[in-house]
Every structure is written in C-alpha cells, then in structure tokens.
Design goal:
The chain is α/β, with parallel strands linked by helices and 315 residues long. 38% of the residues lie in helices and 13% in strands. The chain has 3 domains: 34 residues, no CATH class; 124 residues; 126 residues, Glycogen Phosphorylase B (Rossmann fold). The strands form 2 sheets. Strands 7-6-5-8-9-10 form a 6-stranded parallel beta sheet, with helices on both faces.
Length: 315
C-alpha cells in the first residue's frame, strides 16, 4: 500500500537510494492522477454523456460555469455546443469573476492577477450571447451550477500540452467537433485586403522575427497597447485597431485577408471562425492546435514567411 513520505524522508531516500526514489515519485504521480480521476468522476458530478442526458431530460436545462481566461472559454464552446446538440435543452453559461491568475515567467497580463473581470466578461458576452447553442449567458452570482468547467484546473490534466479545446471534453466525456467553425459572426468586409495580427507577451517563439512583414502594406494589430507598442518597433507602419468589444474583434478577424497570432485570445477567435490563420507556436508550451481547413502553425522563420506569402497570394 502506498504511503506518502514527509520532506525529510523524501530527501533521505533521494540521497541514499536513487532507484527507490524514482519508484516513489512514479507511485506518487500515479496516486495523484487516481485521486484526480476519482474527484472528477464521482457519482453526483455530470461527468459522462449518459449522466448529462439523464439530468437534461429531468430538468430541461444545463447550467455551466467558467472563470476564464477568455481564450479558455472560447475553446470550451465546442464542448458546450456538443452538449446542446445531444441534449436539446436550454444551455445557460455563467462567467465567474475574480478567480486568481498565476503568471509564471511573465511580467504582466492585461487583467493583472485575475483571469476574468467585469469589463472582460461584458466584452466577451457580446460575442457569446448571439451564438445559437447558448440560450443564456450572464455573470455568476449565486446561481446553481450543474457542470463546473473549471475542474480541468484541479491538477490532473496536463495544461502545457495537447489541445485546449479538448480540456472540457475530458471532464464531460462529450466529444467536441473541432474541424468546423463554432463561432458565427458577420465579417467586417472593410478588412478584406488586410492582414490582421495579434501577439501577446506570453507564449512567444523567440526565434521568430516579423521584420519581413514590412514588405506587406495593409497590416493591423488587435490587442492591448503595450503589445502594439512592442510590435511597432519591428513593423513601423502597422496600425492599431482598438475594439469596443469582442464581437467587433471577431468581425474584423472574420473579414480579414488572413490572421497571424500566437497562442493568445485573438487566435482562439480565429480558430473558432476557421478563417485563414497562422499560429506562432511556442517551444515551451504547445497546447493550441489548428484543426480543420485554413489553419497553419510553424516553429521556424522560413516556414512563417512561406505561409504568409502563400496566403497573401491566394486572395
């Protein structure tokens, strides 16, 4: 039977018997994964299609919650849409505000030390409210929640690899359809000859230089001011578009010639729309995967330049 050791016992084992220490670490990891699995799949949680279907038939609705980040919520939508499709009941989505954000290795984040605040939630609601598979979306106060989509953060799912868009499906057992669009917006056609770009401080590939984009005339940047100031050092003629909400951002991306971004919120919108899109992949964290048509990702400079040239010549 496995018994967890205290700090002194672990250190002693590490220095006196490295083989047994490795075995202990392996057993400890397995115990943590087992505990997480038991936590997620315990009887009263709606953690399988059968449980969700039965509950939906009895109650006529499913109430879900999510605390962000905003991109995580966009990537949760295919699973939410799949739940709506196979239950055919009312879907209510509640956004939790003020949940702590832990930054590792980065100086700043647009929302400071929380994943979702009031302003971000309101901007996001403008985009999510018209989606046909969401019947009600609101800020969470004291509403009863049937499925907490934040459980993927409980420690059992590796968040630095795989595909973010599958995190919520791992909790529910509901398979999302990721190859087709899950966001519906009216494209802003005034950007039809424009490259739209976004690049956050986090998840950058530091081997990449965007200086070559100075050879392309119509480029706009969507993102926060600090990110725009940074990219303007490399692409002096790039223009900054400040959006009022995320519906406007989505309409710009939907109407663009194509989109370039790293693993940040604007790319999640491009992925949800399935527009022509290029993903800058970070070497450190690879948890965003283009699925379906028009999606491309890269590690290396010459591949980026080739993709941009190809997409620029297609329209």
């Amino acid at each position: 039977m496995f018994k967890k050791r205290n700090l002194i016992s672990r250190l002693w084992l590490k220095h006196t018997d490295k083989i047994r220490y490795k075995q202990y670490k392996w057993e400890l990891r397995n115990q943590k994964q087992l505990a997480f699995a038991n936590f997620i799949t315990e009887a009263e949680k709606l953690t399988s299609p059968a449980k969700i279907k039965k509950y939906a038939e009895q109650n006529g609705r499913i109430r879900l919650s999510h605390s962000g980040n905003a991109g995580d919520i966009i990537y949760a939508l295919p699973t939410i849409e799949a739940i709506r499709n196979f239950t055919n009941v009312k879907i209510e989505l509640y956004l939790r505000l003020g949940q702590p954000l832990i930054l590792s290795g980065y100086n700043s984040h647009p929302l400071g030390n929380v994943m979702m605040n009031q302003k971000m939630a309101e901007m996001l609601i403008t985009l999510l409210k018209p989606q046909p598979y969401i019947d009600l979306i609101d800020i969470h106060t004291d509403q009863i929640i049937d499925i907490d989509l934040d459980y993927f953060r409980a420690g059992g799912i590796p968040l630095d690899k795989g595909n973010i868009a599958r995190w919520c499906s791992y909790l529910t057992g509901v398979n999302p359809v990721l190859w087709k669009s899950w966001l519906n917006v009216e494209p802003d056609k005034s950007y039809s000859d424009t490259i739209v770009m976004a690049r956050s401080e986090r998840y950058r590939n530091y081997t990449i230089n965007y200086k070559f984009l100075n050879d392309y005339q119509n480029i706009v940047f969507i993102g926060v001011e600090s990110e725009f100031i940074d990219i303007k050092k490399t692409i002096p003629h790039i223009q900054w578009v400040q959006v009022d909400d995320f519906m406007q951002m989505a309409q710009i991306i939907a109407g663009a010639k194509f989109f370039i971004g790293n693993q940040s919120f604007p790319y999640s919108i491009a992925e949800g729309l399935k527009v022509p899109r290029i993903l800058e992949t970070s070497f450190e964290v690879i948890n965003v995967v283009p699925e379906g048509g028009n999606g491309y990702d890269f590690f290396f400079q010459e591949h980026l330049e080739s993709l941009v040239k190809t997409l620029d010549e297609q329209k």
